[in-house]
Amino acid sequence: MRADAERNRARILDTAIAAFAAEGLGVSVHEIARRAGVGTGTVSRHFPTKDALFEAIVADRVGRIVDRVQALAESPDQREAFVEFLTILTEEGAANVGIAQAFAGAGYDMDAAATAGGYDFDAAMAAALCRAQEAHVVRADADVADIKALMVSCMSRGSADQATRARMIDIVARGLRPPESATQ
């Protein structure tokens, strides 16, 4: 790829990341092109569809999330690791409206985008949940769909500020404890 084409692609991605993060999935390709200082044809040459553009962003963000979640597998304290996992997901969603919408399934298949980027987001979530359940710090009847639903709620409720997000994570983490340790 030519140097100017690479610069345009990078500028488009940077602009799209900021636009999707601030405004969500509703931002148009035309608006992204305008903000990037390129024509819509230039955007289309690099990303034939809006989904392709968002997929490139999701693959990058999900890759970072998965890498961070996988690093928690080595933690000797799986309760702490699971709370950190919940925090990572909530913070990412709070920082990026588009990712939060995709995570919630609002018109975009985040799992497909992650897979296209070489990441299995659901498998990373399932592994984190399984480790926590095997360590008896998360109730055995919780599944990945439960965790996703709880995180979507935390993302939407907790987007206001850090203190709210921390409180929401604490509420969720306490509620996910096995029944015999739920009051601890």
Describe the 3D structure.
The chain has 184 residues and is mainly alpha-helical. The protein has two domains: 1-48, Arc Repressor Mutant, subunit A (Orthogonal Bundle), CATH 1.10.10.60; 58-181, Tetracycline Repressor, domain 2. The chain has helices at 3-23, 29-36, 40-46, 50-71, 78-95, 97-103, 110-116, 121-134, 144-157, 162-176. Helix 4 (50-71) runs antiparallel to helix 5, helix 4 packs across helix 7 (110-116) and helix 5 (78-95) packs across helix 6 (97-103). Residues 6-65 form the HTH tetR-type domain. Residues 28-47 bind DNA. This is TetR/AcrR family transcriptional regulator.
Which terms summarize this structure?
single chain, 184 residues, mainly alpha, Arc Repressor Mutant, subunit A, Tetracycline Repressor, domain 2
Mean residue pLDDT:
85
CATH class of the largest domain reads Mainly Alpha
Which residues form runs of ≥5 with pLDDT under 50? none
Order of helices and strands: HHHHHHHHHH
- Give the class from helix and strand content and strand pairing: mainly alpha
- Estimated helix fraction: over 70%
The second-level CATH architecture of the largest domain is Orthogonal Bundle
The coarse overall form would be elongated
Note the main sheet: none
| CATH fold-type name of the largest domain | Tetracycline Repressor, domain 2
Radius of gyration: 18 Å
Total of helices: 10
What's the count of strands? 0
Head-to-tail CA distance between termini: 57 Å
CATH homologous superfamily caption of the largest domain: Tetracycline Repressor, domain 2
Domains, number: 2
Beta-strand share of residues = under 5%
